[in-house]
Amino acid sequence: MAGDAGSIPELDQKKYDSDEQVKIICLGDSAVGKSKLMERFLMDEYRPQQLSTYALTLYKHTAAVGNKTVAIDFWDTAGQERFQSMHPSYYHKAHACIMVFDVQRKITYKNLANWYKELREYRPEIPCCVVANKIDADLKVTQRSFNFGKKQGIPFYFVSAADGTNVVKMFREMITRAVDYKQNPSDFMDEVLQELENFDLEKKEEDSEADEVGLKAEGPESE
Amino acid sequence: MSFEAKRCGVQFSPPSIVLIYQHKETKHMRKRIIPVRNFSKYSDYSMAAESLKNHPRHRDYLEGVSQSQLEKLHIILRDHMQGFSLEHSLASFRLDPDEDLNQLDDDKLARKKGQMDELFEKNRKHKDDPDFVYDLEMDFTKTTQERCSWDEESDDGF
C-alpha cells in the first residue's frame, strides 16, 4: 500500500533511495511565504518546476555536505494546502520537513498542529523544524517565545524572506540534518520499505545490512 | 534605473494605469498615463500585468512597481468592467489576520497575496543593494522572551 503512495508518473521517487538524492518538503498554510523563502535561499538558482496537475512545485539545488555533493529536491505545495491535507506521495521518502507559519496570522500558527500530525503519520522520525516567517513586519515578535517547536522537540527559526534574516542558515541546517538522517534512517517505515524492495531484488544483498551502512557513514571517508 | 516610481493608480476611462515618478537626475516629478489595451472583463490580470511590466516602452518606468501591485491595479480595472464598485475591490484586498486563507479560491487568494506583497516589497533587500548579505544571521535566543499568547488556550498539542 505504501508503495502506491509514490506514484506520480512524471516523478520517479525511487531516485531518493540513492545516497546523493535528498527530498525536503515544505508544509504550512496558504500565503505564509513558503515559495518566497525558497526564492530567497536559491536566488539566481531559483527555477521552479511546476507540476500543476499535482498542485506541486519542485526546486532543485545542489550542495556540498561534508566531502560530498548532494542533489536536493525541495517540494513545495502549489495550493494543495487548501485541502487541509497533502497527498501521501508528498510525504513519501521525504528526508526532512520545513514547517512555516506567518507571525502576523495566529491561525497559521495554530494550524501547525494539524500539519505536524499529518507529517508524523507518514514520516514519524524525519528531521523537522518550525519557521516563523515575516518577522520584518514587526521585529517585536522575536521577543516572544512560540512553544510549539519546543514542545515537539524540534528547532525553531525566526526568519524573513523579505530581508533574508536566517533564511540561508535555516536551509543549510535542514539540508545537513536531511543528509544525516539519510545516512542513519530511524523510521520504521523506511526499513519496512527497504526490506520489501530487497525482497523483490534478491540479488542486492549488500544493501539489506542497514546497520552496517549506518556504521560505515561514521567512518573518516565514505566514498 | 533613471526613474523612481512614487505612486501608482488607475483611471477607469479610458482604462489606464497612472504612474507618478521622479526623474532621478533632474528630480522632476512626472505623471505617466499608460493605456491598458486589449483588456476586458474576461482577461487574465496576471498575464496582463506581466506583459505591461515587460513592455519595451514602459518597463523602465515600471521597474520599481512590483508584479503583484500591477496585478492589483488590473484587478481593480477588471472589477470595474464587471460592474463592481471601487469599494468592493478595495475591500477584497483588505487583510483580516483571523481569516483562514486556505479557504479562498485562486482569485480571492491572489488579492490577499497582492496586499501582502506590498509590505514584502517594501522590506525586501535586493541582491544589488549595497548592504545585501546573502547569509544574513541574527540570534534571537538571547533576547528576553515573554510567553506568547498564541500558546494559551491550548488543547491541540500546543
UniProtKB/TrEMBL annotation, chain A:
InterPro entries: P-loop_NTPase, Small_GTP-bd, Small_GTPase. The keyword GTP-binding applies. GO terms for biological process: cilium assembly; microtubule-based movement. GO terms for molecular function: GTP binding; GTPase activity. Residues 213-223 have a biased composition (Basic and acidic residues). Residues 203-223 are annotated as: Disordered. Pfam families: Ras. The keyword Magnesium does not apply. One of its GO terms (cellular component) is cilium. Keywords: GTP-binding, Nucleotide-binding. Belongs to the small GTPase superfamily. Rab family. NCBIfam families: small_GTP. This is Rab-like protein 2A.
UniProtKB/TrEMBL annotation, chain B:
Its main location: cytoplasm. Belongs to the CEP19 family. Signal peptide: none annotated. It comes from the Eukaryota. One of its GO terms (cellular component) is centrosome. GO terms for biological process: microtubule anchoring at centrosome; vesicle targeting, trans-Golgi to periciliary membrane compartment. Keywords: Cell projection, Cilium, Cilium biogenesis/degradation, Cytoplasm, Cytoskeleton. It is found in: Cytoplasm, Cytoskeleton, Cilium basal body; Cytoplasm, Cytoskeleton, Microtubule organizing center, Centrosome, Centriole; Cytoplasm, Cytoskeleton, Spindle pole. PANTHER family: CENTROSOMAL PROTEIN OF 19 KDA (PTHR31539:SF1), CENTROSOMAL PROTEIN OF 19K CEP19 (PTHR31539). The lineage of its organism: Eukaryota, Metazoa, Chordata, Craniata, Vertebrata. This is Centrosomal protein of 19 kDa. It comes from Eleginops maclovinus. Pfam families: CEP19.
